[in-house]
Amino acid sequence: MLYRNTCTCNLLFLFQVFEQVVNVMTWRGFLSPSGRRFRMTLGAAHAVHRVSRDDGGRNRNTEEERQRLIRKAMLLPSSLLLLLGLLTWSPSASWAAKVIVVPPIMFESHLYIFKTLATALHQEGHETHFLISEGRGVPPSPYYHLQRYPGIFNSTTADNFLQSKVSNIFSGRLTFLELFDILDHYSQNCDAVVGSVEVMTRLKEAKFDLLLVDPNEMCGFVIAHILGVKYAVFSTGLWYPAEAGAPAPLSYVPEFNSLLTDHMSLVQRIANTAVYLVQRFGVRYIALPKYDRIMKKHGVTPQVAMADLVQGSQLWMLCTDMALEFPRPTLPHVVYIGGILTKPPNPLPQDFEAWANDTAEHGFVVVSFGAGVKYLSRDIAHKLAGALARLPQRVVWRFSGVPPSNLGNNTKLVDWMPQNDLLGHANTRAFLSHGGLNSIYEAMYHGVPVVGVPLFGDHYDTMTRVAAKGMGIMLHWKYMTEEDLYTALTSIIKDTRYRQRALTLSSIHKDQPGHPVTRAVYWISYVLRHNGASHLRSAVYEVSPYQYFLLDVIFTVVAALALSVFALRRCARWLRGKAGDQSRGGAFTGDDGNLANGHCHSEIMANGKHKRNGSLKSEKKMN
């Protein structure tokens, strides 16, 4: 026993030499909880070593203390494994994977999110690739690689196309028609990618481990199927699609684009149901068949319906958060990661810093309609400028184009601004925005109230939630006046309830286990570690619509009830008939009469007359 303890203690004492190497080579890993436990084990072992040297510890420690230290030293095997793991640890050795992202062909704000995600994945040892069209201006970076393809857009043509759609909306054309046109161009671009043999061969040879699909660019589902790789949805919008499979009771779950909250009247529930049915019809019979035709055109095998590909995602990561979203049922493989771009403010550039610090008396208002809307209509710009000029606050406005003629002296026009850092400044009083999701999360993160003028897409749904949560006011660009805008801005600046509510939502958003981008990386790694994490997927994808809505159960129960009622009625009728026959037979039958077939044939009357078949007949007297 002494020999074993002595050998063990000598070996553990030698491991202390390695501890210094570990501190240098794997300092990050050694500071982890496992590393701390390892250091504690080394300390215990060294203590046992000292105890053994000092004549069994009789002069310094009690026998119980020595046994306690020996038990800690018995952790040698696990500690040795930990040491070996730390000595060989590197980011690329820890579940390193090749991930390919298929971002939308337009909307640069989506690409900002994926760049942030790629940086975080790189720090964990993963390798990220972006599938980008030729001519799209994406600068090189050590955090991601670019896979180019001959698409239908480059940076210039994509921006011009998007601005033309915005201009058409301002001109009064129906928004959904413009959005359908955008979706049609998405499918045209998908046709070009899938039809490029060189591109698809190159992607197959790269042997990716996971593909991230932005549901705005649904071609990602097709590409994942062709490459035969696992895929997960990374939604850069607020959209929680019914195709994810989660229960969506229309009585309190507002459908996307319905502009409703989770508290609905009867009329609103009818409207919500109508929007749900229209959108399911549009997705099922208009949007998805475009990609079915593309796969059929290029002979993609095995043949799988696009609807099945959408529902086959291993994971759904949605850029929403319970601080902003309405509570609703969800599924284990649907996770919320809203606020990817949020972060504490950095010091402002010198010119902005001097301008912001000079507004201490009244503060300032930040105005931005996002990178996707460069040119506002003249009418809207005129209303905005007039309302902003009446405020006592200073205004910094991200603006492109010809300045409005009624621009106030308090307004500073810039073509770029450090929006996050300005929103995080102590003198910020309000944020005037189009309701873009990234901008709203930045405002919420810093506790800044919002006046929103949504223009298209998910802007309306985002601002509906902002208004419902008490963090801001929503105005409709078609109907708002300069006075409406001025009143809304004055309200959220002077009414402290908006600021307090924004700060409350900020606290809720931050009170989570890790930053959203950290959680996103965790779930991506989780899917990779568990080979798709199929244990998270519900059986909802394996049932047909009639099974999901229990139509077969309802039919079976109704049929069983109908058959039971029918049988009971037949039985009751038969029993009533039998009881009636018996009662009639008892009334007409005498003691001496004969009953045959329900008729009385002969009965001797007291007067000597005979009754035959119910009639009295006279009988001649016999001589």
Automatic annotation (TrEMBL):
Location of region: Disordered: 603-623
UniProt keyword list: Endoplasmic reticulum, Glycoprotein, Glycosyltransferase, Membrane, Signal, Transferase, Transmembrane, Transmembrane helix
PROSITE patterns in the cross-refs: UDPGT
Gene3D superfamilies assigned to the protein according to its UniProt record, in alphabetical order: Glycogen Phosphorylase B (3.40.50.2000)
An annotated Gene Ontology molecular function: N-acylsphingosine galactosyltransferase activity
Keyword ATP-binding listed: no
PANTHER family from the UniProt entry: 2-HYDROXYACYLSPHINGOSINE 1-BETA-GALACTOSYLTRANSFERASE (PTHR48043:SF54), EG:EG0003.4 PROTEIN-RELATED (PTHR48043)
Family the UniProt entry places it in: Belongs to the UDP-glycosyltransferase family.
Protein name per Swiss-Prot or TrEMBL: UDP glycosyltransferase 8
Organism annotation: Gasterosteus aculeatus aculeatus (three-spined stickleback)
